[in-house]
């Protein structure tokens, strides 16, 4: 994020949310904003992170629903994201929220 927000200043069309737990401690963040396409209604999850010791407690689901609502209220008609294939926990969350796979990138290591 430091590269995308020089001197800590958010660029227009982006929003970063701090994810807080029930006692007000930060447990992660969500960075969403307009996609780089020419479609102003296409938004993107640029980064989402929940601390490892806080995962599995519903913070990711709540965070994604917040992001969807924020994007929708700012004119978004879609919200995209990328997820690593090995990240089965996140993929399960996104599947349960109705996200659909739109592309698959594959790699074979050559010895």
Report on this structure.
The protein is globular and about 45 Å long. With 111 residues, the protein is an alpha+beta fold. The longest helix is centred in the middle third of the chain and has 15 residues, at 59-73. Helix 1 links the parallel strand 3 (42-50) and strand 4 (78-80). The protein has a four-stranded mixed beta sheet with strand order 1-2-3-4, with helices on one face. It has helices at residues 59-73, 88-96; strands spanning 14-20, 26-34, 42-50, 78-80. It contains two helices and four strands; from the N terminus they run E-E-E-H-E-H.
Mean pLDDT: 91
CATH topology: Aminopeptidase
Q: Main beta sheet, described?
A: 4 strands, mixed
Strand content: 25-35%
CATH class: Alpha Beta
Indicate the radius of gyration in whole angstroms.
Answer: 15 Å
Provide the structure class. alpha+beta
Distance between the first and last residues' Cα: 34 Å
Task: Give me the count of strands.
Answer: 4
Q: Residue ranges: pLDDT <50 for 5 or more in a row?
A: none
CATH homologous superfamily label:
Gcn5-related N-acetyltransferase (GNAT)
Q: Please state how the strands of the largest beta sheet are arranged side by side.
A: 1-2-3-4
Secondary-structure blueprint of this entry?
Layout lengths: L13 E7 L5 E9 L7 E9 L8 H15 L4 E3 L7 H9 L15
Parallel strand pairs: 3-4
Antiparallel strand pairs: 1-2, 2-3
């Amino acid at each position: 994020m430091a590269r995308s927000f020089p001197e800590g200043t958010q660029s227009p069309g982006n929003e970063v949310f701090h994810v807080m737990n029930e006692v007000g401690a930060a447990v992660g963040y969500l960075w969403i904003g307009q996609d780089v396409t020419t479609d102003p209604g296409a938004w993107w999850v640029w980064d989402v992170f929940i601390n490892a010791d806080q995962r599995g407690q519903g913070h990711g689901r709540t965070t994604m629903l917040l992001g969807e609502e924020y994007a929708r209220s700012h004119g978004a008609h879609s919200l995209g994201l990328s997820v690593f294939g090995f990240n089965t926990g996140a993929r399960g969350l996104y599947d349960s929220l109705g996200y659909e796979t739109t592309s698959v990138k594959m790699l074979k290591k050559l010895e």
